[in-house]
Write a sequence for this structure.
């Protein structure tokens, strides 16, 4: 029992040493075990000696010509062999999961972006890979990628959190738009500063929501705006702008259909040159599962 407790307390050291011991017995000596493990003979010998010292048991009988397990060593070897086999099996299962496009995906995308770009890419992806089960949150709320266990989140703009994996999907520009009827009523602004005296529509998730930032020939200008409608959804703001309720500052993919129909027109075009990257944001992983790599490929193909 004391030896078992010792193993539990020092498991981070003991488990690798058990694997060294198992290799020595399985290969019939330190030299062969060292070659199989890609380690030096002296290192393998030292690890086995430390294991024996920690357990207070001699596991091997050593001579200049042969190495054999003691009676206690034979019993311990069987347990070590089972542990090594389980570890190898677990590794093979994980590798299989990583290399197959199957399993559950949790995805979060802004509502309007999802409607414009995710529908076709995701449905084609799921049709091509029947083993995928997807849970999709289409909303403009800010999710906690790690805490809420999302596999992929789409975000527009700069990503500052360092422990996340970021893949650029495309670029977007924020445009100032208004209904033709509103321009007839209040006039077309020629400078961004004029917007501070005109009715505007504010996006709730923007920080700060009452500051619009413009870029013209590399010169940034910040304008404080006011309005009687604030909302956390770009579609509603675009519809309100088309009704003539105010000027809106929204991503191009939100307003593009209304621009094409003539319900909205662009203003201050020369001051809206700055583009913002649209990113796929993933949990910090060194090796992305194939199911995520494939989904990224479908998204990038559509956005291209």
């Amino acid at each position: 029992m004391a030896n078992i407790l010792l193993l539990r307390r020092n498991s981070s050291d003991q488990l690798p040493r058990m694997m060294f011991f198992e290799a020595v017995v399985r290969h019939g000596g330190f030299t062969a075990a060292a070659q199989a493990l890609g380690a030096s003979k002296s290192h393998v010998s030292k690890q086995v000696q430390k294991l024996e010292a920690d357990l207070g048991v001699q596991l091997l009988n050593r001579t200049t010509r042969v190495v054999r397990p003691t009676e206690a060593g034979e019993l311990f070897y069987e347990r070590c062999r089972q542990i090594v086999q389980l570890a190898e099996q677990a590794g093979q299962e994980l590798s299989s999961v990583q290399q197959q496009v199957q399993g559950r995906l949790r995805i979060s995308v802004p509502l309007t972006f999802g409607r414009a770009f995710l529908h076709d890419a995701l449905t084609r992806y799921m049709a091509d890979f029947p083993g995928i089960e997807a849970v999709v949150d289409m909303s403009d709320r800010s999710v906690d990628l790690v805490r809420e266990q999302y596999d992929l989140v789409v975000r527009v703009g700069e990503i500052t959190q360092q422990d996340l994996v970021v893949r650029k999907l495309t670029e977007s520009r924020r445009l100032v738009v208004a209904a033709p009827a509103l321009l007839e009523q209040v006039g077309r602004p020629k400078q961004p500063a004029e917007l501070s005296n005109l009715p505007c529509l504010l996006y709730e998730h923007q920080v700060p929501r009452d500051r619009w930032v413009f870029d013209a020939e590399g010169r940034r200008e910040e304008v404080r705006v006011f309005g009687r409608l604030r909302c956390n959804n770009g579609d509603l703001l675009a519809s309100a702008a088309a009704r003539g309720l105010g000027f809106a500052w929204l991503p191009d993919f939100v307003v593009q259909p209304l621009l094409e129909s003539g319900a909205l027109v662009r203003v201050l075009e020369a001051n809206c040159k700055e583009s913002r990257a649209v990113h796929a944001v993933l949990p910090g992983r060194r090796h992305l599962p194939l199911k995520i790599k494939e989904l990224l490929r479908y998204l990038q193909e559509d956005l291209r």
